[in-house]
Design brief:
By secondary structure, this protein is an all-alpha fold. It is built from three helices and no strands. The protein has helices at residues 7-39, 53-77, 79-86. Helix 1 runs antiparallel to helix 2 (53-77).
Amino acid sequence: MSAWFNYAVAIKIVVFGLVVGAGLPALFAMGVRINAEGAGVARHGDAVAQRNPLVLAVSWLIFTVVLVAVTVGVLFIARDFIGHHAGWYILGAKHA
């Protein structure tokens, strides 16, 4: 570790940025694709396939995971503001 630059923290930031910055959109795209399969959307002009409720449930579970991750991220960023104005000290917000 350098006195000027903390390499361990920089690597953690890069890894987290890749997971959240590329992982959540990829997970959402996978959910959209799985949803289309479960809904029986036609592929390349073929006849419409039968709906699959289990696959639709998996796609909605993926959408829920993405929505929860985004909501927690926004709340984490705004935690001090929320704590100051609403009195709800969530996700490690400190009392002023």
